[in-house]
C-alpha cells in the first residue's frame, strides 16, 4: 500500500511540473521577427536551427550545413571530404599544382567557365577573390596564411607564408 501512495505522489508531481512547463513562455518567441518586421526562415535540425544564409564563406550557413553550398557557388576543384586522400576533380579550374612544401599553388582557370550573366570567369576574378579573403579577416574563417596572389593569363599563383 505504501508503494502505491509513493507512486501516486510521484506521478502527480511529474504531471504537475509538465503542466507548468507547458504554460511557460517559449524561448524562441522573440526570434520570429527582426527590426522592421522582417521574418526569417528557421529550419529545425538536430544540430540546431538553420537560418536562411547562403554565404559560401561561412561554414555555419545553411548552405554549408545542409550540403547545397556547392550547388549555388561552384568551387575551383571538387574534393571528397569523406575520402580526402583522393585527388581533387577539376571544376572551374582545370588543375592545381602545389610545390612540395605546400607554400605555393598554381591554379589554371578553365577557359570556357562563365558567370551566371554569361561573362567569362578569368584568373583575375579568382585572384580578386583570394585577395579579398586575404585582406578581410572576417572572410578568412580557416585562417589561411595567404602571401602574394597574382594572375597572369588563365593562371593564378597563390603563395602562403607557411605550409598548410
In words, what does this structure look like?
This protein has helices at 2-23, 62-66, 69-72, 123-135, and strands at residues 42-43, 50-51, 77-78, 89-90, 93-98, 104-109, 146-152, 155-160. With 164 residues, it is an alpha+beta fold. Among the domains are: 38-73, no CATH class; 88-164, Alpha-Beta Complex (Dipeptide-binding Protein, domain 1). A hairpin with a 2-residue loop joins β7 (146-152) and β8 (155-160). The longest helix has 22 residues, at 2-23. The N and C termini lie far apart (71 Å).
Brief write-up:
This protein is an alpha+beta fold. 27% of the residues lie in helices and 20% in strands.
Topology of this protein?
Layout: H1 2-23, E1 42-43, E2 50-51, H2 62-66, H3 69-72, E3 77-78, E4 89-90, E5 93-98, E6 104-109, H4 123-135, E7 146-152, E8 155-160
Antiparallel strand pairs: 1-2, 3-4, 5-6, 6-8, 7-8
Approximate strand percentage: 15-25%
- Number of E-type strands: 8
How many H/I helical runs? 4
Q: Radius of gyration in whole Å, from Cα?
A: 26 Å
Catalogue the unreliable spans.
Answer: none
| Gap from first CA to last CA | 71 Å
Helical proportion, percent range: 25-40%
Strand numbers in spatial order across the main sheet: 5-6-8-7
SS class: alpha+beta
Q: Which CATH top level class of the domain at 88-164 fits?
A: Alpha Beta
Amino acid at each position: 500500500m505504501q508503494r502505491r501512495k509513493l507512486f501516486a505522489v510521484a506521478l502527480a508531481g511529474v504531471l504537475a511540473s509538465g503542466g507548468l512547463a507547458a504554460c511557460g513562455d517559449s524561448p524562441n518567441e522573440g526570434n520570429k521577427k527582426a527590426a522592421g518586421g522582417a521574418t526569417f526562415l528557421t529550419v529545425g535540425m538536430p544540430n540546431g536551427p538553420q537560418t536562411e544564409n547562403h554565404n559560401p564563406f561561412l561554414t555555419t550557413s545553411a548552405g554549408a550545413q545542409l550540403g547545397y553550398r556547392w550547388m549555388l557557388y561552384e568551387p575551383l576543384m571538387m574534393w571528397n571530404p569523406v575520402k580526402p586522400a583522393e585527388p581533387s576533380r577539376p571544376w572551374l579550374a582545370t588543375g592545381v599544382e602545389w610545390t612540395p612544401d605546400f607554400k605555393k599553388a598554381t591554379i589554371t582557370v578553365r577557359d570556357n567557365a562563365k558567370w551566371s550573366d554569361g561573362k567569362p570567369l578569368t584568373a583575375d576574378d579568382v585572384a580578386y577573390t583570394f585577395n579579398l579573403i586575404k585582406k578581410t579577416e572576417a572572410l578568412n574563417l580557416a585562417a589561411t596564411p595567404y602571401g602574394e596572389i597574382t594572375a597572369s593569363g588563365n593562371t593564378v599563383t597563390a603563395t602562403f607564408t607557411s605550409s598548410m
